[in-house]
């Protein structure tokens, strides 16, 4: 077998493919097949010369080939069954996940590239370049809005204070007016009570009947019943005037008290 070039010796070896090739070479149905035929088959399957060499070394194909070359050549055994048995190993879960991540990464990179191209060229061409507001401008607008809200709040509080002052002043004036009216009513009642004391009290002594001249006494004899009736009339007149004055003062005091409580 010809020597493998140096550039292929240092090439990357796919370990999973090499392991599959080793299993194929170690198959009893394929081991008696000539080495050149097995190498050509592996080349058709996509293996590089380096991978074929590594697989043959691991499977001991070179040693077996030397032994077969020393012995009498045997009839070639068909390798169709061995070729059919060679199947690629199924991907493991980690390999599937790796493939998915790889595809997603490629797709994301393509989408990002398309988006950046649209952002830098297509969007400017279609909609023009709109300058975004900086953070300082946004903060300044927010500060103005807050200041305006605070000013409105102060004005509202000032209006409320004015209304409260008006209500308080109106209540105080009403209280002062009521106190003034109460004092006036008390003064009126006091004046009425004092005015009653200024009038002289009616004497409880009997009224002296008017005297009759002496020259009439001799000619007219006084009737005792007539004298008693006149004295009773005078007593009733005096007592009636005093009781009427007392009732009038009582009524005035009661009316003043009713005005005060109302």
UniProtKB/TrEMBL annotation:
One of its GO terms (biological process) is protein import into peroxisome matrix, docking. The chain crosses the membrane at residues 100-118. Keywords: Acetylation, Membrane, Peroxisome, Phosphoprotein, Protein transport, Translocation, Transmembrane, Transmembrane helix, Transport. It is a single-pass membrane protein. InterPro entries: PEX14 (IPR025655), Pex14_N (IPR006785), WH-like_DNA-bd_sf (IPR036388). GO terms for cellular component: endomembrane system; peroxisomal importomer complex; peroxisomal membrane. It is found in: Endomembrane system; Peroxisome membrane. Interacts with PEX13; forming the PEX13-PEX14 docking complex. Interacts with PEX5 (via WxxxF/Y motifs). Interacts with PEX19. Interacts with tubulin. Residues 218-262 are annotated as: Disordered. Belongs to the peroxin-14 family. Component of the PEX13-PEX14 docking complex, a translocon channel that specifically mediates the import of peroxisomal cargo proteins bound to PEX5 receptor. The PEX13-PEX14 docking complex forms a large import pore which can be opened to a diameter of about 9 nm. Mechanistically, PEX5 receptor along with cargo proteins associates with the PEX14 subunit of the PEX13-PEX14 docking complex in the cytosol, leading to the insertion of the receptor into the organelle membrane with the concomitant translocation of the cargo into the peroxisome matrix. PANTHER family: PEROXISOMAL MEMBRANE PROTEIN PEX14 (PTHR23058). It comes from Aquatica leii. The lineage of its organism: Eukaryota, Metazoa, Ecdysozoa, Arthropoda, Hexapoda. This is Peroxisomal membrane protein PEX14. Residues 14-55 form the Peroxisome membrane anchor protein Pex14p N-terminal domain. GO terms for molecular function: signaling receptor binding.
């Amino acid at each position: 077998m010809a020597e493998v070039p140096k550039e292929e010796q240092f090439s990357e070896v796919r370990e999973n493919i090499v392991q599959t090739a080793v299993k194929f070479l170690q198959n009893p149905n394929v081991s008696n097949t000539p080495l050149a035929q097995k190498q050509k088959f592996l080349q058709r399957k996509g293996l590089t010369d380096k991978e074929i060499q590594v697989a043959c070394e691991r499977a001991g194909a070179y040693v077996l080939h030397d032994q077969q070359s020393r012995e009498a050549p045997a009839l070639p055994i068909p390798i169709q069954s061995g070729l059919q048995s060679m199947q690629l190993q199924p991907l493991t879960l980690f390999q599937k996940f790796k493939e998915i991540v790889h595809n997603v990464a490629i797709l994301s990179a393509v989408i990002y590239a398309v988006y950046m191209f649209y952002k830098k060229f297509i969007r400017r061409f279609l909609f023009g370049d709109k300058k975004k507001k900086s953070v300082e401008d946004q903060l300044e607008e927010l500060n103005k809005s807050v200041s305006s809200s605070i000013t409105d709040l102060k004005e509202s509080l000032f209006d409320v204070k004015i209304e409260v002052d008006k209500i308080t002043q109106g209540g105080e004036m009403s209280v002062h007016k009521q106190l003034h009216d109460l004092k006036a009513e008390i003064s009126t009642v006091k004046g009425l009570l004092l005015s009653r004391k200024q009038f002289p009290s009616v004497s409880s002594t009997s009224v002296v009947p008017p005297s009759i001249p002496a020259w009439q006494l001799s000619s007219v004899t006084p009737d005792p019943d007539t004298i008693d009736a006149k004295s009773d009339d005078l007593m009733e007149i005096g007592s009636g005037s005093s009781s009427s004055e007392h009732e009038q003062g009582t009524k005035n005091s009661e009316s003043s008290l009713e005005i005060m409580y109302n």
